Amino acid sequence: MTLLSLRAGRLAVDLAPQAGGSIARFAVEGIGDVLRPTRAEALASGTGRDTACYPLVPFSNRIADGRLAFENQEFHLSPNWPGVRHPMHGDGWSHAWTVVTADARSAELVYEHDGREGWPFRYRAKQVYRLDADRLAVRMSVENLEGRPVPAGLGLHPFFTRDADTELRCRVIGVWRTDPEVLPLDHMSVPPAWDFSRSRKVDGLGLDHCFDGWDGSATITWPGRDMRLTLSATEAFRHLVIYIPDGRSFFCVEPVSHANGQVGRHLIDAGATLAGEITFTPSSS
Fold it and tell me: Confidence band (pLDDT; 50, 70, 90) for 2?
């Protein structure tokens, strides 16, 4: 597996185009990994499923029973994730991406989908990575290659390293309750137990929910490492999936363009492009 290594100042990023266009490593010199490190066997799988971060294109999370409905039409998508009966996280994570350009601080990756398997519509997805001395920026886009409006969305799935004292702060308005299969049931205001408007420890919360009304900024703090990271996203990403599994060494804060299961309401015109940027800025806390 050939990795693309980007370096700037104290920041180091390794990309794995052949493993789902994913990030294999993101670290700060003298502090350590910001995202969970990727094992060799994960890269050898040719997918981004167990990497540090992978793209969510053309949809985020699960589509219940694979039933994609929009404009009085329904398409059936097959399961694509081990152990999950609902198709999940789109196509991009499970395919190799083409390297268009790359240098010491940037790279452009493209995945073009022909609509024959997986998502039933053609699209072109692009990721442009840019590493500066103080931040990593990821510009994402999905272009509709069909001759009519069809659903499509975007998201990014980073796995942040997690210590016992790691904290999260973000402002959101609402959240979807879920059933045991993590499918959305109903929407409600954020309850106090899931309120991150003030920085709080993530350990023990056991979340896997999609929030909306996100203002595009989140802060993760590792007090024991004297490190903080600001996660910023542009207007295209106003939903946030927060995944905090019990007993694991990571947690996820995922900027996405649409709510779980609702990509069918998110149409892109023929030939149009949905695009946005997500920025990771680490600093001393």
Answer: confident
> Which spans in the chain are helix H?
40-44
Could you tell me the fold of the domain covering 4-163+233-284? Answer: Beta-galactosidase; Chain A, domain 5 (2.70.98)
Summarised one tens digit per residue, pLDDT across range 225-250 is 999 999 999 999 999 999 999 999 99
Nearest to 223 by CA among 140, 163, 151, 160: 163
The answer to whether the predicted template modeling score (pTM) of the entire model surpasses 0.90 is yes
Dist. CA 20–CA 46, nearest whole Å: 7
Radius of gyration of the chain (CA): 18
Burial of 91-128, coded b for 16+ CB within 10 Å and e otherwise, reads bbbbbebebeebeeebbbbbbebeeeebbbbbbebbbb
Domain ranges of the chain: 4-163+233-284
Pairing type for strands 22-28 and 32-33 reads antiparallel
For residues 26 and 46, is the Cβ–Cβ distance under 8 A? Answer: no
